[in-house]
Amino acid sequence: MSIETTITSDVVGLIKPPPVSRRGFMSATAAVAAGYTLATGPVRAEVITTDTSGLQAGDAKIKVGSEEMPAYFVRPASSTKAPVIIVAMEIFGLHEYIKDVTRRLAKLGAFAVAPDYYFRKGTDLTKITDIKDLLPVVNSKPDAELLSDLDATVVWAGSQGGDTAKLGIIGFCRGGRTVWEYAAHSGTLKAGVAFYGPPVDAPNPLWPKSPLQLAPEMKAPVLGLYGGADTGIPVAQVEQLKAALAENKKTAEFKIYPEAPHGFHADYRGSYRKDAAEDAWKQAQAWFKKYGVLS
């Protein structure tokens, strides 16, 4: 199997989700019309939808080198210096779930930005319906380019009046890995929250160090939220990362939801677990408050 088509641990948990009844799901047509990806299977009818009242929401182009990276941003309409939180997406592109998370953060007072850092491939990931077709795109994203895209996102948010002295990042699935990577890279990050980000990578020369290998380099406190029933990320790996961070005297906390599968926060998927998702969201808010991102 080539690197491009390697099924990484975050994807294993998606390909082998727990069995779920087909009742309570949107038709494919309705799901696409609502802006959700179909790559993970049927979309739940009871998705969480967050309105934009009191918010300013929109699409942006962020300058990265000679190119322009698309992004979705939301911030409180009344706030001039809102704290900045980057939203690191799953492998499915900038679809409705990620946009809704961005709105939820803005409701908490943040200038939240979700950059579409897979844009260079010229493919709309949200329209791809088979995970195997996504892998060549997302697995060929070099970490060095990813980190510089995130740095550019921070610069852009600052240029738009965001308070980058109160910088946070939150990510899901592959985006959870991104949180760990960025926490080891950025000297300005105040805190990160990683939802089920793989601690160990599949071999890939474009990803020089996994989160586990980066434990000694962590510069910001990270909260790791994981599912005990994740078929792709064994709890033993999470414990390994926890031990490596403790050994290097890094600030990190972990919460494992014993019955939760991979993607338990993704309210559009069959993997959604309401209790774990709601508790994890509360934990995330408390973490950002504790480290001065949110007030």
TrEMBL record:
UniProt key word Hydrolase: yes
Keywords: Hydrolase
Residue ranges constituting the Dienelactone hydrolase domain according to the UniProt record: 69-291
GO molecular function: hydrolase activity
A Pfam short name: DLH
PROSITE patterns to which the protein is assigned, alphabetical: TAT
Keyword Hydrolase: yes
Stated name of the protein: Dienelactone hydrolase family protein
